[in-house]
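Reopening: Ferric uptake regulation protein still failing for me.
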Amino acid sequence: MAQPVSTLTLNERSTGNNGASSVMGEKEIFHHHIQRAGLKRTAQRDLILDVFLGTDEHLSSEDLYRLVQEKDPTIGQTTVYRTLKLMTEAGIAREVRFGDGKTRYERNSKLPHHHHMICVECGHTIEFLSSELEAIQNEIAAKYRFEPKQHSLRIFGLCADCRDRAPARHNLETVEPRVRLSLARAHK
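Support: Ran it again with your exact input. Result attached.
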């Protein structure tokens, strides 16, 4: 059965039994990566890394920049963007796209492979795990002798709060065109 694992609350999962060691491991990975790349460890990069690791949100580079600015307004947007790119290259962050044209990033190590449900009204995102979906994927791949390298499942709809609001006017402009078309057909 699919189980929700997050409704995006800060630090909920990173404070568990291995939360501190996970963050330390991610920091070590990052520092090793920048050293291999011939770059220096700086206080600015460390702060950006700490801010990123301190949230479980799906952050755009602009979101991360705003959070970093709250801690140190002298850090520029280019520094944040480049550090986020380094974190992605190091495998600490991974890109996620929810069909609204924005690239967001999440911690690569925070969860095993998971999926997203995205509210088309308010943008709220729920992450969930499903062994059943993984089993179906593996079964289909085996049937076609296909070796999947990665996959992504995004379910667009209405969260409980937006669904319960009346009258509901659904914002389909934030959804990819092909998803928008199928949602529009469903509303007819």
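The domain at 115-187 is CATH 3.30.1490.190 (Dna Ligase; domain 1). If you still see a failure, please send the error message rather than a screenshot.
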